[in-house]
């Protein structure tokens, strides 16, 4: 998950040399199917973590508490005690929203919940968002000068690690092309739309293979995938590989010809997989969700397509396969944009800058 990735980046970077960091691990390492569910384990974890923060606040001289926050009622209510504990002990509170749904969450909340949200956000010292286009989520809730933008960033290796010569592979009728989708296998992430584009593509391009890498979020989606592939006789054209990490993930990016991620996930912010695909030098077919448009520009390093539209996905895939020079140019542009804006150095320096500014305001 995005917040976990970002936390790991910070804990293994110069960030911990700039500040004396004490980390309270709030992760629930069970299945993704447990996310957002009320159960005794979740309640127990929250109570344990409140106790940990309370003990750190009374036993360690600290100046600031950094809290990644949620954008659902259950998640936000769980996060509130962290904010109020920080303010009770007169510490700076820096919140980080790693998504793009907060305004919808606020607008759809009942009156009491809106009051709680406003009251809590009044207490904070700074809010971090993932893109400029996400700042309006807090209009009327947080003064604009308290909102900082820090895009995601991570080091994925050099261009040669991903095969900078990808565009030089010989094109021809017998070459098998690889289309990669890598994310949690949830419908809202767009995997089903990608799958439904496959029969359209193979009518024109027989030697194309779709790779789906990620974890199923429910059994119904897994069964639906199997049924669709079997009914359309696509067993040789599609594969689900499960969660991929490390060198296995890098190999998938290296072997891919293009990356497709047509998400309409309502909580989307700045997906890590987009940055990975950019680092890998791939053209990207995606949607205008969260702040994706701040890293993928239509016609420059990929295409922005309508949501829930398998036909549009197929059209752009076929166009890129038919135009290798465009595919190569867009891939090079993705890598250039990654190096200019989305490396680990950019991300860590941005976070350090926000923390220093918050502490300077003491």
What does this structure look like?
With 362 residues, the chain is of the alpha/beta class. It has 13 helices and ten strands. Strands 7-6-5-8-9-10 form a six-stranded parallel beta sheet, with helices on both faces. Strands 1-2-3-4 form a four-stranded parallel beta sheet, with helices on both faces. Helix 4 (73-88) packs parallel to helix 6 and helix 10 (272-279) packs across helix 12. The longest helix is centred in the N-terminal third of the chain and has 20 residues, at 40-59. The protein is globular, with a radius of gyration of 22 Å. The model has no long low-confidence stretch (mean pLDDT 92).
N- to C-terminal separation?
Answer: 32 Å
Question: Average pLDDT, to the nearest integer?
Answer: 92
In helices, the fraction of residues equals: 40-55%
The name CATH uses for the topology of the largest domain is Rossmann fold
- Main sheet: which strands, in order across? 7-6-5-8-9-10
How many structural domains does the protein architecture include?
Answer: 2
Count, helices: 13
Major beta sheet summary: 6 strands, parallel
Radius of gyration: 22 Å
Give the SSE order as H and E letters: HHHEHEHHEEEHEHEHEHEEHHH
What is the CATH-assigned architecture of the largest domain?
A: 3-Layer(aba) Sandwich
Structural class: alpha/beta
Point out poorly predicted stretches.
none
Dominant shape: globular
Considering the protein shown, what is the CATH homologous superfamily of the largest domain? Glycogen Phosphorylase B
Total beta strand runs? 10
CATH class of the largest domain: Alpha Beta
* Beta-strand percentage range: 5-15%
């Amino acid at each position: 998950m995005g917040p976990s990735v970002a936390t790991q980046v910070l804990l293994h970077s110069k960030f911990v040399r700039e500040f004396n960091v004490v980390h309270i691990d709030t992760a629930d390492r069970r299945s993704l199917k447990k996310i957002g569910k009320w159960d005794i384990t979740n309640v127990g974890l929250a109570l344990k973590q409140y106790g940990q923060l309370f003990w750190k606040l009374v036993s360690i001289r600290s100046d600031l508490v950094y809290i990644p926050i949620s954008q659902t009622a259950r998640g936000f209510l769980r996060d509130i005690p962290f904010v109020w504990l920080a303010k009770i002990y007169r510490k700076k509170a820096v919140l980080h929203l790693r998504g793009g749904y907060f305004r919808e969450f606020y607008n759809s909340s009942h009156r009491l919940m809106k009051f709680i949200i406003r009251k809590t956000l009044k207490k904070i010292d700074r809010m971090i968002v993932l893109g400029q286009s996400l700042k309006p989520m807090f209009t009327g809730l947080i003064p604009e000068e308290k909102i900082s933008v820090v895009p995601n960033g991570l080091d994925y290796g050099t261009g040669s690690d991903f095969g900078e010569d990808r565009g030089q592979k010989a094109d021809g009728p017998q070459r098998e092309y690889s289309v990669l989708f890598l994310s949690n296998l949830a419908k809202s992430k767009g995997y089903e739309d990608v799958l439904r584009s496959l029969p359209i593509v193979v009518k024109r391009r027989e030697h194309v293979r779709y790779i789906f890498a990620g974890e199923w979020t429910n059994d119904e989606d897994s069964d639906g995938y199997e049924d669709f592939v079997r009914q359309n006789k696509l067993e040789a054209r599609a594969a689900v590989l499960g969660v991929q990490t490390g060198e296995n993930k890098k190999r998938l990016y290296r072997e891919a010809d293009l990356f497709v991620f047509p998400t309409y996930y309502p909580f989307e912010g700045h997906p890590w997989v987009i940055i990975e695909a950019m680092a890998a030098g791939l053209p990207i077919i995606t949607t205008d969700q969260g702040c994706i448009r701040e890293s993928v520009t239509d016609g420059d390093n990929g295409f922005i397509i309508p949501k829930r539209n398998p036909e549009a996905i197929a059209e752009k895939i076929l166009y890129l396969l038919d135009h290798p020079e465009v595919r190569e140019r867009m891939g090079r542009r993705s890598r250039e944009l990654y190096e200019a804006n989305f490396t680990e150095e950019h991300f860590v320096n941005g976070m350090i800058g926000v923390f220093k500014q918050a502490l300077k305001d003491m």
